[in-house]
Amino acid sequence: MFSTWKSGGDVLKTSLPSFGGQPVKAFIGWSGILIADTEVNLLEALIAYYEAVQRESCGRCVPCRVGTRIILSLLQKLAQKDDPSLRQQLMSVANLVVNGSKCELGQSAGKPVIDFLNNYQELSKYCAPSNSDQKYHALVTAPCLHRCPAHLDIPSYIERTTERCFEEALEVIRRSTALAGVLGRVCVHPCEEHCRRGLLDEPIAIRGIKRFVADYELKRGRKPTLKGEGKNSKAQVAVVGAGPAGLSCAYQLARKGYKVTIFEALPVAGGMLAVGIPPYRLPRDILQGEIEAIKALGVEIKYNTRVGQDISLQDLIQNYQAVFIAAGLHDSAKMGIEGENAGYEGFIPGVKYLRNMNLGLPIPAGKRVAVIGGGNVAMDCARSSLRKGFEEVYLIYRRTRAEMPANECEVRDAEAEGVKFCFLANPTEIVAEDGKVKGLNCIRMELGEPDASGRRRPVPIPGSEFFLPCDVVIPAIGQVADLSFLDHEGIELTKWKTIAVDPVTLATGVPGVFAGGDIVLGARTVVEAVAQGNRAAISIDQYLTSGKVEPVREDLVDAWLKEFGVFDPNERVGILNGRPRQEEEMAPVEERLKDFREVELGFNLHDGITETGRCLRCYRVGLMVLDSASNA
After folding, report:
1. Spatial separation of the C-alpha atoms in residues 446 and 65, rounded to whole Å
2. What is the mean pLDDT of residues 561-583?
3. Average pLDDT, integer, range 87-94
4. What distance in Å separates the CA atoms of residue 517 and residue 538, rounded to the nearest whole number?
5. What's the pLDDT at 456?
6. Quick one: three-class SS letters along 396-461?
7. Residue 336's CB: how many other CB atoms inside 10 A?
8. Of 588, 564, 490, 606, whose CA–CA distance to 146 is shortest?
9. Which GO terms fall under molecular function for this chain's record (predicted)?
10. What is the CATH number of domain 2-142+618-627?
């Protein structure tokens, strides 16, 4: 193994994961060269690498577009004759490319040839004669793009937004999701965790920019419009559940021309988007507009149709050519404390509380409410309770604020609005009088050793019991699936009571039946559900066209990059910081608590464009050298 690939800590990377089970002989990319096979012809591989760079270079700056073309030409000449003057020219041009390119693609593209030239004598034994056994696989990625579960092309839509090509930016987003306005509001933006701008100052407001372009369309009086691919298929697909996973699968299949019917138990589409997220975070007109755009592609949604009661799963399997199960998690997990199952007036699980509130159904009334939990559902219950007129809202969490799984912005907004946090506390009993909730018996906790989640386990403190008076108790400690509709013995369950599927293709044990979203992953995020719906559509298309379901090339690349790594938290970016992140407008606290009006108001035109200008456009090109016998 020879490596010039250094992490931010100057530690050489010295291993190459296999690609689809096949050994990778070498990898050339944004941080140098790794060689694992003495038979690699490095010079030929470098030529293939710069051919790939040329295909991706946008041409917006001369050093990248022209410079890498010159590097390619010089390498081709060097392959014919080892001339010291050619190597001098190569080094000069490569440094110009690294130092003069506007974005990361060009800035990183010069490094491999510089490393090659600096180590040419040492690497001469790796420059084998022309070798017909070499096979190349080029890839293009970016840290934010790869971290996004749905792999939205983030640098592309940000760049188009910078250029004020808002319709083009939306087209880029809608290749991966029909829910641009939804994700622009409620996505937990894991992409920002891997934004290289964050190594300088603060990450790009990626979610806010997505919302910005989606809102721009609406502000111009246009309805969301989605485009199909013009194909037509007679195959019919059934989808169980109109949540983000089901809608995303239906969208991608409809684009390919399939006839899709969604069976939804609720009177509305959207799943937890519609009945689990309050309107102050996701206005209903935003969600409904994007659902109508999906329906305009030919997707039919049958409301108030519960699979397992109104129609059986077995009927769907028999009457449709493929089935995607995306029923979600609509039951609340149990706390396991005394009084939980007594049917007291004033007790309501968090999922039901939000569902009833969003559907206009009755909810308990009172002055003081206690919400148990530390996730986003708990935050939604607490903040919604303030808007429903409760005078005091307590949130009880058994760990500290640092361990709370809820988004930091949700916690911050809950505090600003007046939610009272009781950290390191846990309920032990629901206290009632004449069948009505009167309060909670609780106990103080302390943090012990880490548990399976990596967080320190909360341990009760003997003798620290206390009573919290309240009229309403809302547990929101987790969500579970109602699997009573599963009437086919071929569909297996995991030990966590979720549906067992192939982790890549999402196929169940029944041919033509697939499952995804929370009913497979457990309670996760909206963007992860979107990713699962997209991936299921690929498998269903495979099944209906070839009868076989297998991983596609993108799956192999994704798995390889996850093991190899794209984002380096210790990287020295090497440019000046000092461009602060723009803040989205917010409704004043005193105004937002009056009703369920939207709290986050997005970017205005100036701030939205300004924020896109902070993007470093971190595209990166990589090239695997494989054996020609590889089937990967």
Report:
1. 59
2. 88
3. 93
4. 15
5. 84
6. EECCCHHHCCCCHHHHHHHHHHCCEEEECEEEEEEEEECCEEEEEEEEEEEEEEECCCCCEEEEEE
7. 8
8. 564
9. 4 iron, 4 sulfur cluster binding; FMN binding; NADH dehydrogenase (ubiquinone) activity; oxidoreductase activity
10. 1.20.1440.230
pLDDT digits (tens, 9 = 90+) for 194-207: 999 999 999 999 99
Look at domain 332-478 and name its CATH class. alpha beta
* Paired tokens of 625: 């050298």
- CATH 3.50.50.60 domain range(s) in the chain: 236-330+481-551, 332-478
Say how many Å lie between the first and final Cα of the chain, rounded.
22
The residue type of 496 is W
Three-state SS at 238:
strand
pTM of the model: 0.93
Nearest Cα residue to 596 out of 300, 404, 389: 389
Instruction: Estimate to the nearest angstrom the gap between the alpha carbon of 560 and the chain centroid.
Output: 18
User: What span, in angstroms and rounded, lies between the C-alpha atoms of 115 and 31?
Assistant: 9
Q: How many CA atoms lie within 13 A of 342 on its CB side?
A: 18
Task: Give the list of residues 6+ apart from residue 241 with CB closer than 8 angstroms, or none.
Answer: 262, 263, 264, 265, 271, 325, 326, 327, 328, 517, 519
CA 534, 540, 546, 550: dihedral to nearest 10 degrees?
A: 60
**What's residue 132's pLDDT?**
58
Q: What is the 3-state secondary structure (H, E, C) of 288-301?
A: HHHHHHHHCCCCEE
Q: How many CB atoms lie within 10 A of CB 343?
A: 9
Residue 171: in which H helix or E strand, if any? Answer: helix 166-176
Indicate whether 75 pLDDT > 70. Answer: yes
Q: What's the CA gap between 379 and 530, in Å, rounded?
A: 23
What confidence score (pLDDT) does residue 542 get?
Answer: 97
Distance of alpha carbon 21 from alpha carbon 254, whole angstroms: 33
Q: Is 480 helix (H, G, I), strand (E, B) or coil?
A: strand
Instruction: Please calculate the CA angle 267-268-274 and round it to the nearest 5 degrees.
Output: 135
Question: In the chain, where does the domain assigned CATH 1.20.1440.230 lie?
Answer: 2-142+618-627
Q: What mean pLDDT is reported for the chain?
A: 93
How high is the pLDDT of residue 237? 98
pLDDT band at 516 (very low <50, low <70, confident <90, very high): very high
The C-alpha atoms of residue 278 and residue 301 are separated, in whole angstroms, by 22
Residue 400 CA to residue 447 CA, distance in Å, equals 9
Pairwise CA distance, residues 597 & 383, whole Å: 12
d(CA 149, CA 187): 11
**Single-letter code of the amino acid located at 440:** L
Largest CA distance in the chain: 95
| 479's tokens | 């969500």
Q: Is 162 left (phi over 0), alpha (psi -120 to 50) or beta?
A: alpha
Q: What is the pLDDT of residue 128?
A: 64
Please report which confidence band the pLDDT of residue 427 belongs to, taking 50, 70 and 90 as the band edges. Answer: very high
Cα gap 185→376, rounded to integer Å: 14
d(CA 243, CA 223): 21
Residues written for the chain: 632
Q: Span 236-330+481-551: which CATH code?
A: 3.50.50.60
Whether residue 276 contacts residue 379, with contact meaning beta carbons closer than 8 Å, is answered with: no
pLDDT at 631: 59
The backbone torsions φ and ψ at residue 591, rounded to the nearest 5 degrees and listed phi first, read -90, -40
